[in-house]
Structure formats: C-alpha cells, structure tokens
Amino acid sequence: xxxxxxxxxxxxxxVITVVELVEEPxxxxxxxxxxxxxxxxxxxxxxxxxxxPGWIAKALGSATFLGWIIDIIVSIRNxxxxxxxxxxxxxxxxx
Length: 95
Description:
Layout: H1 2-22, H2 28-49, H3 54-60, H4 63-94
C-alpha cells in the first residue's frame, strides 16, 4: 500500500511538472497530448524506482487516466490564475 501511495505522489509531481513544461498560449489539445506523452515517458523512470503491481501501473499510466489528471491540474491552475487576476484587480481598484 505504501508503494502505491509513493507511486501516486511521484506521478502527481511528474504530471504537474509536465503541465508546466508544455504550457504556452493556445493549442490546448496539442498541449494535452504532449503532456500525456511526456508523462508516460517519465513514468518509465518511476516504475524503476517504485515497485508496484503491473496492473496498477498500467491503469494509472493509461492515456485516459493521465488525460483526466492533466485536465484537473490545468483546471486548478487556470482557476488560480483567474483568482490572481481578480486579486490584482481589487488591489488596483482599492488604491
């Protein structure tokens, strides 16, 4: 169980890093596919570090699951960016 949690932690860090690496304005579908491909490549390294059952690695490393995780991370990132814009606007208005 600890190995699975460690794997998920490493996978999350990898996906967040990959999302930041491919971030650029526009081309959302292309960026998503690049992020999935890079994450799957990076998972090869994670499999060498953390020994978990193959079926779990396959499920968590699937393009469908990674795409879902990437969508969530991008959504959180974008909502955070929107929040920062709102905060900056409020600060500018209050001055």
